[in-house]
Backbone:
């Protein structure tokens, strides 16, 4: 399984969600400002549970966007070492958007989220109802720059792979049926096509 790097702006961290990243293929880097001198015991203990898969990085110096520049630098270093990895930045500001669009144009999976809960793997794990699963699959497929599944068989396989531990056959079928009913996709025989706005 591909490595997932999660680069977190400490000011945007939701400590209770760190548990969702306690998986072998996740690596967590928490960036702390030069003037931030305290972390809670709860946060420290949750991060320690990740062992060597997590680390703090205190940035040097102050200044506008100093933490953002550090995150961008480390993202570049990680990308050079593991170009096939997934990169998730947890931050609220839009300063990363041009960089992330450039990386997506180069076929790098790099995204920014406002919360750990929005990372696809975490969102999939927390999608309990059929409605939540349909919304997650729709968003995941819409986010693909290209290469959406073009047959019923590959769509079924893609949906199964989106969820930790997969989904039962009847649940996968219900997701496809709901996506078709919403007009997101159309099935003709064994072929799947997508609405123009999602292609």
Residues:
């Amino acid at each position: 399984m591909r490595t997932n790097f999660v680069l977190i702006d400490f000011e945007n961290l939701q400590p209770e969600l760190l548990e969702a990243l306690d998986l072998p293929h996740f690596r967590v880097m928490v960036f702390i400002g030069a003037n931030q001198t305290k972390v809670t015991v709860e946060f420290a203990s949750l991060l320690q549970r990740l062992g060597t898969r997590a680390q703090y990085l205190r940035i040097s110096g102050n200044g506008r966007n100093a933490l953002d520049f550090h995150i961008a630098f480390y993202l570049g270093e990680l990308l050079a070492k593991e170009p096939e990895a997934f990169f998730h930045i947890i931050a609220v500001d839009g300063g990363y958007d041009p960089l992330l669009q450039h990386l997506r144009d180069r076929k790098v999976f790099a995204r920014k989220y406002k919360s750990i809960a929005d990372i696809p793997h975490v969102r999939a794990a927390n999608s309990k109802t059929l409605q939540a699963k349909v919304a997650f699959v729709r968003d995941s497929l819409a986010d693909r720059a290209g290469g959406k599944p073009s047959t019923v068989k590959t769509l079924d396989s893609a949906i199964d792979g989106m969820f930790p531990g997969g989904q039962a056959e009847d649940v996968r079928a219900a997701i496809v049926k709901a996506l078709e009913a919403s007009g997101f996709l159309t099935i003709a025989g064994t072929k799947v096509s997508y609405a123009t706005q999602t292609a």
About this structure: The CA atoms of residues 64 and 95 lie 11 Å apart.
